[in-house]
Amino acid sequence: MEQELQILNTCDKFKFQQVHRLGKPKANESRPIIARLLRYQDHEEVLHQARKTLRDKDYSVFGDMPKELYDLRKPQVYKLKEAKKRGLTAYFSKRYPDKLYVSGKFIHPKEPLPY
């Protein structure tokens, strides 16, 4: 976190409840790391810093979400990335987290980007 996210003194600054890796070790493959922070404020700071510093790098940071929601979003993630590449505002709704909006308009999962 200190090297890639450029957050100084992470062990002193954040309170971790639990940190572990997922899956079994495989040759030439890295495993995801799960870190649970005690305070929501710390969680938000890490996500904010990750958005700023991890562009075009091999690392990524995500907030945890249920597998069901991940599976619902997965078919639309490429549309989200494509819209952002084009400079459009794209996001998943907070109220309905499986709904994608581009430039304020709902994008149906089975339709291509209209832009």
What's this model, at a glance?
The chain has helices at residues 10-13, 40-53, 67-73, 77-85, and strands at residues 16-21, 33-37, 90-92, 100-102, 105-107.
Describe the structure.
This protein has 115 residues and is an alpha+beta fold. The protein folds into 2 domains: 1-64, no CATH class; 65-115, no CATH class. The chain has helices at residues 10-13, 40-53, 67-73, 77-85, and strands spanning 16-21, 33-37, 90-92, 100-102, 105-107. The chain has a 3-stranded antiparallel β-sheet with strand order 3-4-5, with helices on one face. A two-stranded antiparallel ribbon has the order 1-2. It is globular and about 45 Å long. The model has no long low-confidence stretch (mean pLDDT 88).
- The tally of structural domains comes to 2
Give the strand line-up of the largest sheet: 3-4-5
Largest sheet: 3 strands, antiparallel
Q: Quaternary state, please?
A: single chain
Task: Sum up the overall morphology in one term.
Answer: globular
Structural class: alpha+beta
Number of strands: 5
Runs with pLDDT <50, length 5+?
none
Count of alpha and pi helical runs: 4
- The percentage helix is 25-40%
Query: How confident overall, as mean pLDDT?
Result: 88
| Amino-to-carboxy terminus distance | 37 Å
Please supply descriptive tags for the structure shown above:
alpha+beta; globular; two-stranded antiparallel sheet; 4 helices; 115 residues; three-stranded antiparallel sheet
Give the helices and strands, then pairings.
Blueprint: H1 10-13, E1 16-21, E2 33-37, H2 40-53, H3 67-73, H4 77-85, E3 90-92, E4 100-102, E5 105-107
